[in-house]
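User: Before I run my own analysis I want an independent prediction to cross-check against. Here's the chain; please return only the structure tokens and, at the end, one sentence I can use as a sanity check.
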Amino acid sequence: MKELGILGATLSWLVFSGQAPLHCAARPNVALIIIDTLRADKLGCYGFTENTSPELDRLAERGIQFTKVYAQCSWTRPSVGSMLTSLYPRSIGLYRGNPGEKLDDSFLTLPEILKSYGYSTFGVTANPTINSIFNLDQGFDEYIDSDVVWNCMLDLDHSKLEYRPEVVPLPDSARIFRTALDRAKAVSKRPMYVQINVMEVHEGWRLIRPEFKNCFTNHAFHWYLDAIRQMSFDVNRFVAELLSMPGFEDTLFVITSDHGQGLDDHPHVANSQDHGYLLYESQLSVPLILFHSSGALGRKKIDQPVRLMDLMPTILEYLGIPRPDDLHGTSFLKSISAPDSSPVVPEYFISETYFQGSNKIAVHSDQWRYIENRDGQEGVNKLELQPIGVKEDGMLTDKIRGNEGIHGELRRYLESWELFFPRLEGIPADPEFREEEIKQLKALGYLD
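Assistant: Structure tokens:
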């Protein structure tokens, strides 16, 4: 069925475009680098004053930098699933952790489409949350899991080691990037799609090499900044080494993150220092840098807002490959060629999270973020309206009083959106997930 869907999309594209896609040999390689848990505002190219990211800043100067990029969820699996399918997390049934749901085979992913157009495909992840047991390896010729997993995953895969931060850490970036380079060298078929997830920023001090430790001790969360400094160096080294390899001279690099991190932005809100529990700027705003070694993209800084789920249709359009029907995302390639044109994404867009008992959904506009906290979290009102550009701190910064007009408009939009995008019942990654637990989730409103 997937093959028929891809063929149908191709025929439709040919009819409406009046031209044939590029032959696969003419297309560039694509490398998608996901720096897990990386906030945009902690990079120099996004205005941070400390020297955390000189190498990434230079890559941004040589390519396209998007300044307003938002994840559809504030934790990894739903966010990456949405990124790779260009569908909302609820539409692909990804909600919870511990261990949570897996992606159904029926959904078409970016690697699957690229593979059908002649790409060899390789993926490697340091984050066990997107290991192959969650079916996010769809479309890859080879996908290498993290060999260290969270405790809640041990019953799903007995071949892996249990994560113990001080004794059995997650794979480090040196190993992940070396694995990707070795596979790229070993695979002769071009073009190639390479997808990488690295966890240094997520893990903080645990994976930092000595030369990058204690670089920013004047900051409360200096370990987070140390990790960014190391990742900037490592990503740049990977880019340089990959481009030096025969067959990779023409490569499109997409550098981004799956979500951010709260840190100390929201001191009066419970569970706010990490991610997954909130839908504030700190946890949703991520960097996005597109760098094509050929220089074909040019050099620009784009201020139009885009979403991570817009990446898939954008990459496909750039490669001259037809997009599938019924994607929720929109190509933002026009924003690059005509940055002063009207925004390509909707005026309002949605994010939500159900991480470890959370139940939140938000509508974002250019000036406001309307959030419905359906989980009783401490420090926030059940309904809140937060101004964009201000560090949200729950009740202290909530502006819902006195702004009933915009609150009502965003609430009505959300009501109609939820009717149009009903929640799909997820497929438990754990085969022994009991029917009774599914019933309980439905009763709580997590599933329809």
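Sanity check: The radius of gyration is 21 Å.
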